[in-house]
UniProtKB/TrEMBL annotation:
Highest taxon, organism lineage: Bacteria
InterPro entries (UniProt xref): SRAP, SRAP-like
Species of the source: Lentzea waywayandensis
Enzyme kind, highest EC tier: hydrolase
Protein's UniProt name: Abasic site processing protein
GO molecular function: lyase activity; peptidase activity; single-stranded DNA binding
Family per record: Belongs to the SOS response-associated peptidase family.
GO BP, one annotated term: protein-DNA covalent cross-linking repair
Amino acid sequence: MCGRYASTKDPALLAAEFDAVDGTGDEAPGADYNIAPTKHVMAVVERQPEDAELERSVRVMRWGLVPHWAKDLSGAAKMINARAESVLTKPAYKQSAIKRRCIIPAAGWYEWQPGEGRKQPYFMTLGEDTSLAMAGLWSVWWKDDVPTVTCAVLTTESIGALTDVHNRMPLLLPQDRWSAWLDPTSRDPSELLAPDLSIVEALELRPVSTEVNSVKNNNASLIERVVLS
């Protein structure tokens, strides 16, 4: 699964990396080394305004997808991940999977490997210069004519070296799948739901400090490698 991750680039850098425009305005969150459910995050979307071309932009969303028909936001923390295997059939995700897909950029994500005593956290990353493109879904929930845009990260069964850390992993999109995944006119993403081994093989599985266990801790030291005894 993906229950905690880091996003360290500002929206202008993300926009350049993903060939998008910065649509965050004054809402953009700063660098966050310990993103937890229901926090505001940045995501890349592609929309087509009426009588206009497709526009790709970086937007701010709340992590934890809330379907438009939900009564309130209370279930958001349980909806941070959507299983790729069932995303096209589950009512909570189906419509978003068909027409509201996004990319959630990350410097990396955390997983905790069971061991003797306390679990050891690892940070999965391509390095600080290259963002991971986590496949995501988004939705809009309304109350009193005020929209709340929410999102979820797709997950799949782990492959490669990640199987030693956790049985689930985010669905990581290679660059040649970005356009197809974001295209709102393409209503069948089923061929894009398989994990890409080349990205997994390029990942650094970096042991990091257990300070990341607490969401109260949030600084650059959380993603630094530690030496295991």
